[in-house]
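Standup notes
- DV: blocked on the single-chain target, sequence here:
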Amino acid sequence: MSQNKISSRLSTIIKSACAAAVLPILFIYIMIAKPDYTIMNGLAHIVLPVANWVGDIITWPIRAIGSTVDNIKELSNLRTENEELRVRLDDALKNKNICEVAIAENQKLARELDIVEEQPRKAIIADVTYDNTAFNHSTFLINKGVKHGLSEGMAVVSTDGMLVGIINDVAPYFSRVRSLIDSSTNVAVRIAGSEVYGFLQGNGSETPTMGFFSDPEFQPSTGIKLLTSNISGVLPSGILVGEMINDTDVKVTQPKTLSRVIVLQFDTQNEYK
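- DV (later): unblocked, structure below
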C-alpha cells in the first residue's frame, strides 16, 4: 500500500512538472499561430506565475552564489573598517596617555608654584647635590647658602610640600640639611585634625618613630597624618611631616628620592598654610 501511494505521488509531481513546462510552450504557440487575445489573456494569469516559479527555481543557485559573494564583500569591508577603527582607537589611547602625563606634570608644577606663593615671606628652590647616610646619621647638601639668604634652622620641604629636614650648617654657596631619619632629629608634631601632640624621633632607619603623645588615651593607628606643631618654637606649624604605618613607625620622604627641594624663609612664629 505504501509503495503504491509513493508511486502515485511521484506520478502526480511528474505530471505537474510536465504541465508546467508545456504551458509556456502552449502560450507561445497560441501567440504565434492563433493570436486570440481572449485566450492569451486568460492563459497569462496561469502561465506567468508558473513561469516565474520555474524561473525562481532555475535561477536560485545563481542568486544564492551572488548573495554569498555580496556577503563576503560586506564582511571584508567590515574587517577593513574594524582594523581602521582599532588603529584610530590605539592613536586615541596614546594621545590620552600623553595628555594625562602632561596634566600630571602641570599639576606638579602648579603645586610647586602654590608652595612658593603661599609662603608668608619667601621660599627658595634648591637642587640636592649630595646625600650621606651612615652610622645612624642622614644629611644631604643643597646648592644654596648664605649668599642666597639661607640660615641654620630653616625648614626644607619637598616639591609636594612634605617636610624633609632642617638646615644645620650653612656656607656661602651650599647648605647641609639634617633629614628626618637622622638619629639627631627630634621634631614636634601634631596629629592632623586633633589637638594631640607628640615628637617625631629619627633613628637612622627609613622609618622614624613617635616617642610621645600628649594625650595618654590616644590610640595611634595606620594612616594618621602628622603636621609640625611649633610647640618648640623651632618650625612653623602646619607642614605635613608624614603618615603613620603602625602604632609607632612613621613613613616620611627619603633623602635619596630628592632631586629638588624648597627652603622656607619665614619667622618660626608664622604658620605654614
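- Follow-up: The chain has a mean pLDDT of 76.
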